[in-house]
Each structure stands twice: as structure tokens, then as C-alpha cells.
Design a protein that fits this description.
The mean pLDDT is 95. This protein starts with 5 loop residues before the first strand and ends with a strand. It has 15 helices and 18 strands. Helix 4 packs parallel to helix 5 and helix 8 packs parallel to helix 9. The protein folds into 2 domains: 127 residues, Urease, subunit C, domain 1; 316 residues, Metal-dependent hydrolases (TIM Barrel), CATH 3.20.20.140. It has a 4-stranded mixed beta sheet, with helices on both faces. A 4-stranded antiparallel beta sheet has the order 5-16-17-18, with helices on one face. Strands 6-7-8-10 form a 4-stranded parallel beta sheet. It is 39% helix and 20% strand. The chain is α/β, with parallel strands linked by helices. Bound molecules: zinc ion. The site of zinc ion has 6 residues, from strand 6.
């Protein structure tokens, strides 16, 4: 497929939380920077001329009868070095999973050749699954983190890459720990400068992000210094926050306040920053995040394994804190944001109805907890963009064209798409519930084709 500067057919997106808009017979024009400059319906006076011009130029990409354009998926939480163990050791409790599998694997990235062999496959697989923006934890290693930034640039994926800080000798294993607090801070600054000066990254497609693993893995000095670095270098922050019982309690015992309140005091809640999981945050914590313009990476599948509870997504959305979706590779065993979106819907239904049949139905669950496919699509696209404060996630003038073409012609053995209606909300809902990697025909980031099946 040639590079397109115009796209025609059916588009579906969520202009606001809970709202689904389907744009049929619509023409999107993008400029050379990948920005949407016009959204024209076939009833607009300018439509026919623009359509004829685009078709004559040979740069028009059209959706077909059983296909549609969706905004690209935004994955707010990926541990890149955990890619080789996707789906492994999930039967273990968190501390065993970390100490017997995850930390030993991450430590191997001291050899940057491992990064060169693993990261291209991770990034291309995420793109093939429709993930146009990804927020990555790398490891504590400078060279391997630089490789990840270069791989994202070369693949044309919008990415935020963080070199991980874990310097506390009481909490981190000897074989996988920053050699000193000073070195961890200096290398974080050095990595931010490296990414910002990366050749071929003129559009800032790849950006750095300050990354304390979580409060328990970092010394107080490191956390304070990282807050200062983020502020002075105007850089986003990512970390884990109130994920499970252990972490939530640990921070209370260390700081006498919630994870969110402690991170705020440490200067780590910056605009466009990402707090992963947040299962145990209170409404007060959510208000703190909201006023700091920091958002949440909701990782529903991973939460089922390691977080001890279901994240109250409906409550967060109602309070107005920004929420996007995360795979949490490899705490979550799927690279697909669609799969996480579907799981988020199911988890919210279980939270609402309750899960224990021995409890009377009236007191079994938490009323008003469910989300539906519209909100799931919002969280997976525009919600993630809102967390990061980047102009993607919707088909609107002025936003970057980060999009995927889902084509159900590929699903020849799936009766659901052969005879049923191919228009309206049912089609979008069926798409969200059924789409797999093989249905994603093309992926664009910033208007450029990044994957073509
Ligand atoms: Zn994580």
C-alpha cells in the first residue's frame, strides 16, 4: 500500500467519555506532518472536490464494506524486557514471580545485544496489534534503554521510554540494582538528553519519561531527585502506584500517607504522567491526580493475577481522573489492548455484580461499577491520549493521524462477520469484541504506514 494523504470510508471513535461516533462516507485529509487538516462528510460542499483530488493523486486509502478505521490503541504500561517471558510463571505469587523470574531476566539486559534481539520483535508485535503509542519501562541499563528508544524510532511507533531507577539496597537484589543513587539520577538525566537528541526523531515521536520503578524500590533521595529532574527537564513520570495490598501498605508504613499523596509531595505527579494500576487509590487520591493532570494506566488482566482487587474504573471515570489502558507486559500475558479492553468490561461487570454466590445478591457487588464497549474504546484510545496529554485518539482536525484499519474480510471463517449487519453501533461493538491481530490490516502513526499485514 502506498503512503496515503487521504482516507475515506467508515471511521469510529469516542469524541468524549461514553460517546461513540460513527462517521460513514467520510474523508480525512492529512498534511505532510501527519496532522488531520480536514474531516469532510459527503454532504459538505468541499467534499467532492477534495475526494476527486485525493483519488486522482493515487494517495487515497479507502475502507471497505466490512472494515473501518479506528484510532490507534494507546498502551500506557509495558515492561519491554519482560517480553521473552510473556505468559510464563503467572501461577506464582508476586514476590516469587519477581525474584525467581522477572528480576533475573531484566538483569540480563546488561548485555545490550539481548535488547537488540528482543525489542524489535516486541515493538513490531505491538504495532501489528494496533498499538500506535506505547509507554515503556526499560531496565536500569543505559545502553539497552537507548536501544529501545532507537527501535521505536526505526519502527515508527509513538513511544515514551523510561530508564528504570531502583537504587534501594534493602529492597532490590544485589545483581539488579543501580550502583548508587547519584549514578541513577545522572543516568536518568543523560537518558533524557539522549532521547531528545536522537537523530531521526525530529517530530519527537519518541520521548523520554522519568521512571522510578515504584516507591519501595527507590531511596527517598532518589525519589526527591527524580521529582526535581522531571520538573527541571519538563519530563513526564511513570511509576507504579497502589497496585496491590503489599505496595499500598509499604508506602503507608514508610510515609504515613497514600502512595498518591507521597508521590505528589515528592514532585512526581507531573502533567501527562502515568501511574500504573492504582487499584487501592481513594477518591481523595483521584482528586490529587486530577488536579496534577496525572492519569492512570488501567491494567485489567495483570490486575487479575497480581493486584488483589478489581480497579474501580467506573468511579475513576466519574470523578474525572484520566484513565488509559495498559497491557502490563508481562504481568499481563497479552500484547493486545483490545483484549485488555474486553477484560476491563468483564472485570467491571464482576465488580458490579460481585463474585461470591454465598453472599446475597443485594450485597454481593458494588452498584454502578460497569463500563460498556464505548467506554472501553475511550479508555483504550482517547483516554490514554488524555493521560499523556498528546493530540491523538480521535479523528478530529488538528490531531495526529494515529489509526488502524480493521478488515473483517480476513476473518473468512468467522460467521459473525459474514451475514450480520455491517453498519451502526452493533458493528463497532462486534469489532471490539472480536478483533484479533489478523483482522488489523494497516497501522499508521503520525500519518505514516507503520505496519501493513
Ligand atoms: Zn508494571
Amino acid at each position: 500500500m502506498a503512503e496515503a494523504t487521504a482516507f475515506y470510508g467508515r471511521f469510529a471513535h469516542t469524541p468524549s467519555r461514553g460517546a461513540l461516533e460513527i462517521l460513514d462516507d467520510t474523508l480525512l485529509i492529512i498534511d505532510s506532518k501527519g496532522t488531520i487538516t480536514d474531516v469532510l462528510s459527503d454532504s459538505d460542499v468541499d467534499f467532492q472536490k477534495a475526494f476527486d483530488q485525493a483519488r486522482a493523486s493515487g494517495e487515497l486509502c479507502q475502507s471497505g464494506e466490512k472494515s473501518l478505521f479506528l484510532p490507534g490503541m494507546v498502551d500506557l504500561h509495558v515492561h519491554a524486557p519482560q517480553w521473552p517471558q510473556l505468559g510464563r510463571a503467572l501461577h506464582l505469587p508476586l514476590d516469587e514471580w519477581l525474584n525467581a523470574y522477572t528480576f533475573p531476566l531484566e538483569a540480563q539486559f546488561r548485555n545490550a545485544d539481548l535488547a537488540r534481539s528482543v525489542y524489535p520483535d516486541l515493538v513490531s508485535t505491538l504495532l501489528a496489534n494496533g498499538t500506535t503509542t506505547a509507554v515503556y519501562f526499560s531496565t536500569i541499563h543505559m545502553e539497552a534503554s537507548q536501544v529501545l528508544a532507537e527501535v521505536c524510532r526505526d519502527a515508527g511507533q509513538r513511544a515514551f521510554v523510561g530508564k528504570v531507577v531502583m537504587d534501594d539496597p534493602d529492597q532490590c537484589p544485589d545483581y539488579y540494582r543501580d550502583s548508587s543513587t547519584r549514578q541513577a539520577i545522572d543516568e536518568t538525566q543523560g537518558f533524557i538528553e539522549f532521547v531528545r537528541n536522537l537523530s531521526g526523531n525530529d517530530t519527537d515521536l519518541v520521548q523520554p519519561i522519568v521512571t522510578p520503578r515504584f516507591i519501595p524500590s527507590c531511596s527517598h533521595t532518589a525519589l526527591l531527585e527524580l521529582g526535581r529532574v522531571a520538573d527541571q527537564m519538563d519530563c513526564r513520570v511513570q511509576t507504579h502506584c497502589s497496585e496491590g495490598d503489599w505496595e499500598h501498605q509499604f508506602v503507608y508504613e514508610r510515609y504515613g500517607q497514600s502512595d498518591t499523596a507521597a508521590l505528589a509531595e515528592l514532585g512526581l505527579l507531573q502533567r501527562g504522567s502515568v501511574l500504573a494500576h492504582c487499584n487501592f487509590v481513594s477518591p481523595t487520591d483521584m482528586e490529587i491526580m486530577k488536579s496534577a493532570l496525572t492519569g492512570i494506566a488501567h491494567c485489567p488482566i495483570s490486575n487479575a493475577y497480581f493486584a488483589n482487587s478489581v480497579f474501580p474504573l467506573r468511579r475513576a471515570l466519574d470523578i474525572g481522573v484520566s484513565v488509559g489502558m495498559g497491557t502490563d507486559i508481562s504481568g499481563g500475558p497479552s500484547p493486545s489492548i483490545f483484549e485488555n479492553a474486553r477484560f476491563a468490561i468483564a472485570a467491571s461487570r464482576m465488580l458490579e455484580e460481585g463474585v461470591d454466590p454465598e453472599i446475597a445478591s443485594a450485597s454481593r457487588g458494588h452498584p454502578d461499577s460497569r463500563i460498556d464497549f464505548r467506554e472501553a474504546l475511550w479508555v483504550a484510545t482517547a483516554g490514554g491520549a488524555e493521560v499523556l496529554d498528546i493530540p491523538v485518539g480521535k479523528f478530529e482536525k488538528g490531531r495526529h493521524f494515529d489509526a488502524i484499519l480493521v478488515d473483517h474480510h480476513a476473518a473468512t471463517d468467522r460467521a459473525a462477520f459474514s451475514n450480520s449487519t455491517t453498519s451502526g453501533e452493533d458493528f463497532v461493538q462486534q469489532t471490539i469484541y472480536n478483533v484479533s491481530q489478523s483482522d488489523i490490516r494497516s497501522v499508521w502513526v503520525n500519518g505514516r504506514l507503520a505496519c501493513n499485514a
